[in-house]
Amino acid sequence: MSSVVQPIIWAADHLQLLDQRLLPQEVRMLACRSAAEVARAIHDMAVRGAPAIGIAAAYGLVLDAQQGRDYQAAEQVLAESRPTAVNLRWALERMRAVAPRSADALLAEAEAIHQEDLAQNLRMGALGAALLPAGAVVLTHCNTGALATGGHGTALGVIRSAHAAGKLKFAYNTETRPWLQGARLTAFELAQEGIPGKLLADGAAAHLMKSEKIDWVIVGADRIAANGDTANKIGTYALALAAKAHGAKFMVVAPSGTFDLHCPDGGHIPIEERSAAELTEFRGAPVAPLGYAAYNPVFDVTPASLIDAIVCEHGVIERPDAAKIAALLG
Ligand SMILES: CSC[C@@H](O)[C@@H](O)C(=O)COP(=O)(O)O
């Protein structure tokens, strides 16, 4: 288990969330006492990363059940907090199946979701690391580590496992504009673990791949459609195109809860757009002319044809397509 501070802690009558908006300068927990407060924390990105969003939402339902509040209203406010990460809906559906819906039974299920996520990540870490050559140089995007999950991480979990196995030479990570999950969070996790890494501007990635041999680009996912098309943090698609052009392999690492088999292809995945201010301002200070419009989609879709391998806890799907995904998960 990683030494990185825990992002989600159940505290008997409230949920403690590590406020990821403040990292790396400040490590401060945010106390949530209702589903609505958890939904606000998800929407405002105090907690983020697809698996972590699902885990937090599950605990949010427990909070309202403890207070005797309406279950459906709690479920709705959580479901509407962010649109792209299907892990949120997956966790809510799993919680809905709990019978009887007592606070204790819901808590047991939320804790199971939380613990299973860590176990899945450790499994994916081993499977993904096995794909890497000895002395691998990799590039990752966004933050997919312990901060984004129940522990260890997905794509960053593969990097952690490869480092532990002595297979990793170096991990580059993008800053991940505009929210800087890479600069603020992934660099924080890599530094804490002593994994050799270097930060680069998103726009430097294609140049890096042309200048130096990158063995694998390794990313997480917010939703994988039935045909393998994958939604992930904005900029992932550009990395996949650059990887194809420069001979780097492209790996997606995500648990089975990130697959949406009802979604036939990437064209059906809802893509979240966030406020213009995330681009036109930096920490409240304007970086563009006042009132200037901005286009701020925060996810994009990488077509399955650009993906060499999807790693999930059930196994590795090489050159993914609908039949291979259905065979592993169906
Ligand atoms: C294990 S996290 C996988 C994805 O959720 C991650 O790559 C990502 O895109 C996170 O986006 P975010 O907007 O920070 O929630």
From TrEMBL:
Q: What class of enzyme is it?
A: isomerase
- The UniProt record gives the binding positions of substrate as 48-50, 82, 181, 232-233
Can you tell which superkingdom this protein's organism belongs to? Bacteria
The pathway it acts in is: Amino-acid biosynthesis; L-methionine biosynthesis via salvage pathway; L-methionine from S-methyl-5-thio-alpha-D-ribose 1-phosphate: step 1/6
Task: Could you list this entry's UniProt keywords, alphabetically sorted.
Answer: Amino-acid biosynthesis, Isomerase, Methionine biosynthesis
Catalysed reactions, as listed in the record? 5-(methylsulfanyl)-alpha-D-ribose 1-phosphate = 5-(methylsulfanyl)-D-ribulose 1-phosphate; 5-deoxy-alpha-D-ribose 1-phosphate = 5-deoxy-D-ribulose 1-phosphate
What does the protein in this record do? Catalyzes the interconversion of methylthioribose-1-phosphate (MTR-1-P) into methylthioribulose-1-phosphate (MTRu-1-P). Also catalyzes the interconversion of 5-deoxyribose 1-phosphate and 5-deoxyribulose 1-phosphate. Part of a bifunctional DHAP-shunt salvage pathway for SAM by-products.
Which protein family is it in? Belongs to the EIF-2B alpha/beta/delta subunits family. MtnA subfamily.
Q: What name does UniProt use for this protein?
A: Methylthioribose-1-phosphate isomerase
Report the source organism: Stagnimonas aquatica
Q: List the gene name.
A: mtnA
